[in-house]
């Protein structure tokens, strides 16, 4: 089926897809560029870096921390819940930016910006995610492509707003930037949220809610297969019906093992009430806990230095224009790699967790050895020049997998496939240049040659572990985060994504302790890198344990299923023999 025919069959879905991208671009305006605001806040109000950083980091933390709330509201409001929550969140964002532009003290911004904008952003964020999954559910041919391409909106936002915010702040003030952005968010947010209305046939799909007794994907598949199972069971049940009361208990016991149509109606009725006990039970599993703890460390790893970066480059005597130029080049590379890594995502289904494991392993090494990476500029520049060939190799591997139409990791070549991807990720260049040796213009030239990152010393490798911009290292780990959350936990996507965002919010709220507070205390970034290396190592261990736990559980389950089938066969055989004896 061609892409044109797919578009014609799901036009409303692609319209929602475009709306979500535009909303993501405008909503994440200050996610990466708030560091420029932090610089002005520390100068204007003479506040510490920790307090100013926490204003912005707290907003992102709240966006993820209360992600359960909009998910429940959408379920309660029904079909119009997506549109209502999207518009309500947009209004909160606009109110937050306008009120924050008039504050006279930084602590007041914890309410006007951190709390209000975080809550509004959370409603818009979760509405976009859950609306998109209505039209591109798990198992859809374009599921990974749709969910990962949306992440490119963050890179595009950074690409647009970093120079724009810098220009407005330098020539006017940060208050003007807030007011202008409030108007932009209100326009695109309300207009885009108006398209968030699922089709009637999409609404009728059996999607587990927070009140279901079982939140696993396996239970969801069983609910979908119930009509077929019901039809297959009818002839057998008609043959087994006998007036003798002696056989009734055995027949009822056997029938209880098979899913019936009554479970479907019960599951739909349970959506009217919210039972938290089954939800908590589904989250308390070893693999789910490992994933959630891993996401805690992953969020610390990713968000820690974001809001310190302009301040850090200022210490290296870079001007505002140079900082804006470097961050623009960084965002351009990030956007390119987001799009490139999203293309093979549908062919990596089932193995996305291994990509995150590789990325965390490299992040551990890079943070532990960052001081030695800038010792030889010639060697690092050589890696930058060779990046184009490595990128070409990576694209060839992805293209070959695409030709095979299904990258399911051939059972006879599991190790070879894993090593190929590991080598590609390991060989992605880590280039850095010193501000006294090179200028940002040469950084652009080297970045163009190798499609890699050539930045100012000390902050490039530091930024390596907090942005999906350097090769495929974090582009892979964060691009596939949405799809990988359900894949790694085995939960339904709305539950898995809400729980993942909750732990991400906790990690983001702790990020200033790993960055601003340490720098304010030690006036050095050395210990920050050590803590980031430790966080990456813990993340790697937790993610690596998930496939092992799931493998052991599947083996145990298969053994139990074999025993159950044997017992069922014996019971059926005994019933048939007794029936034949009675009939004879």
TrEMBL record:
Keywords: Membrane, Transmembrane, Transmembrane helix. GO terms for cellular component: plasma membrane. The keyword Glycoprotein does not apply. Gene3D superfamilies: MFS general substrate transporter like domains. The chain crosses the membrane at residues 12-37, 49-72, 84-104, 110-132, 144-164, 176-197, 288-308, 320-340, 352-373, 379-397, 418-435, 455-483, 495-517, 529-549. Residues 221-253 are annotated as: Disordered. Residues 223-253 have a biased composition (Low complexity). SUPFAM superfamilies: MFS general substrate transporter (SSF103473). One of its GO terms (molecular function) is transmembrane transporter activity. This is Major facilitator superfamily (MFS) profile domain-containing protein. It comes from Helobdella robusta (Californian leech).
């Amino acid at each position: 089926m061609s892409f044109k025919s797919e578009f014609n069959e799901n036009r409303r879905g692609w319209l929602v897809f475009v709306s979500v991208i535009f909303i993501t671009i405008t909503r994440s305006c200050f996610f990466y560029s708030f560091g420029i605001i932090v610089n002005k806040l520390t100068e204007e109000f003479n506040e510490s870096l920790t307090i100013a950083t926490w204003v912005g980091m707290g907003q992102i933390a709240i966006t993820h921390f209360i992600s359960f709330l909009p998910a429940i509201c959408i379920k309660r409001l029904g079909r119009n819940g997506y549109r209502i929550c999207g518009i309500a969140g947009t209004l909160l964002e606009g109110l937050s930016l306008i009120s924050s532009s008039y504050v006279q003290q930084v602590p007041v911004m914890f309410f006007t910006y951190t709390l209000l904008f975080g809550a509004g952003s959370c409603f818009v964020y979760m509405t976009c995610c859950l609306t998109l999954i209505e039209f591109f559910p798990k198992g859809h041919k374009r599921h990974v492509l749709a969910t990962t391409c949306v992440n490119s909106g963050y890179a595009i936002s950074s690409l647009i707003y970093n120079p724009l915010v810098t220009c407005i702040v330098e020539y006017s003030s940060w208050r003007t930037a807030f007011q202008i952005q409030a108007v932009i968010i209100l326009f695109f947010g309300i207009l885009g949220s108006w398209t968030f209305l699922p089709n009637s046939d999409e609404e009728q799909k059996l999607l587990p809610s927070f009140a279901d007794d079982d939140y696993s994907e396996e239970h969801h598949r069983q609910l979908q297969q119930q009509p077929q199972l019901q039809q297959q069971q009818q002839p057998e049940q008609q043959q087994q019906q006998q007036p003798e009361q002696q056989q009734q208990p055995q027949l009822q016991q056997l029938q209880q093992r098979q899913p019936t149509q009554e479970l479907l109606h019960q599951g739909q009725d349970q959506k009217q009430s919210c039972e938290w006990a089954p939800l908590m039970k589904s989250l308390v599993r070893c693999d789910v806990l490992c994933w959630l703890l891993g996401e805690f460390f992953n969020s610390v790893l990713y968000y820690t230095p974001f809001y310190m970066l302009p301040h850090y480059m200022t210490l290296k005597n870079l001007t505002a224009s140079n900082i804006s130029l470097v961050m623009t080049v960084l965002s351009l590379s990030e956007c390119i790699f987001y799009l490139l890594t999203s293309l093979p995502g549908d062919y990596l289904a089932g193995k996305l967790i291994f990509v995150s494991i590789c990325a965390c392993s490299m992040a551990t090494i890079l943070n532990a050895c960052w001081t030695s990476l800038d010792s030889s500029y010639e060697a690092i520049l050589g890696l930058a020049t060779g990046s184009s060939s490595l990128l070409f190799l990576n694209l060839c591997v992805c293209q070959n997998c695409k030709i095979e139409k299904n990258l399911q990791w051939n059972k006879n070549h599991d190790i070879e496939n894993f090593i190929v991807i590991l080598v590609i990720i390991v060989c992605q260049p880590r280039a850095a240049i010193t501000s006294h040796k090179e200028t940002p213009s040469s950084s652009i030239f080297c970045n163009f040659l190798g499609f890699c990152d050539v930045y100012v010393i000390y902050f490039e490798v530091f930024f390596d572990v907090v942005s999906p911009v350097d090769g495929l290292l974090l582009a892979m780990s964060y691009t596939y985060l949405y799809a990988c959350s359900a894949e790694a936990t085995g939960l339904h996507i709305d539950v898995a994504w809400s729980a993942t965002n909750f732990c991400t919010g906790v990690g983001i709220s702790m990020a200033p302790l790993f960055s601003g507070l340490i720098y304010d205390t030690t006036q050095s970034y050395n210990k920050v890198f050590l803590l980031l290396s430790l966080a990456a190592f813990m993340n790697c261990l937790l993610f690596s344990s998930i496939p092992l736990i799931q493998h052991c559980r599947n083996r145990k389950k298969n053994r139990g299923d074999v025993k159950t089938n044997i017992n069922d066969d014996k019971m059926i055989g005994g019933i048939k023999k007794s029936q034949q004896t009675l009939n004879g």
